[in-house]
Amino acid sequence: MWYPRLKALIISGGPAHEYQTTSLKLREILAGAGLESEITEDPGMLASPRMGDFRVVVLNCARWTCDQTPQWRDEWRYLVPQGARDGLVGHLESGGGLLALHAATICFDDWPEFREIIGAWWRWGVSSHSPYGNHLMRVRGGSHPIIQGLQDFTIMDELYTDQQLTGPVKPLVTAEWGGGEHPVLWTGDYRGGRVCYCALGHGVESFENTSFQGLIRRSSIWVADSGDGISEAGE
């Protein structure tokens, strides 16, 4: 069941990714879930009074201090202003949802609370990723609406490994690399709002994968619900 006229804010932009293209594809995918999306490359939009217009915030970006990558610092260094911090927390407290993709765990590294919101963070020198290539995603089963009825699938992407979890998670999708199993997608809640993180989404090929598209649609509708019954994920 899809519910039209819900709006999503896609925060895009950053180095080493094709965000200008993938965010446009993301907008098309979300439209298939009944979400009308606005794209911005300014995370400061989170501080805008217009945040009340958006039911879902989607992070398809890589915006951080760049202290660990000085070659990108001049162009891409980003410090999260207090207004944006308050805006995202307020969005969740009001029942809004957050869908965080791929490099979102690198983002906003000067804001410790953000790690708690999405449940993980990128620890430089420890966290890593596989070479870009085909990887088998294992759907872990269960009744969660994001994965209910979905099958294992293969996707061309990076596989993030050894991200630092801020607490226990129950992954809905996992993948194997380097002799270990790594969580790819999990859900949580924060201050009353629903949160979903998915480590996929490095390049255009990912967003053209129909299984990943299904995960995005289902995840966006799930985080939009926040328990008030406005939506129900499905295919």
- Please state how the strands of the largest beta sheet are arranged side by side: 2-1-3-4-13-12-11-7-8
Can you name the CATH architecture?
Answer: 3-Layer(aba) Sandwich
* Amino- and carboxy-terminal Cα gap: 8 Å
Number of domains: 1
Description:
This protein is of the alpha/beta class and 235 residues long. The chain has a single domain, classed as 3-Layer(aba) Sandwich (Rossmann fold), CATH 3.40.50. The protein has helices spanning 19-31, 73-76, 82-93, 112-118, 204-207, 210-225, and strands at 6-13, 35-40, 56-61, 97-101, 120-121, 128-129, 133-139, 153-157, 160-161, 164-165, 173-177, 180-190, 193-198. A hairpin with a 2-residue loop joins strand 12 and strand 13.
Please provide a brief summary of the model.
By secondary structure, the chain is an alpha/beta fold.
Structural descriptors:
single chain, 235 residues, alpha/beta, Rossmann fold, 13 strands, disordered C terminus
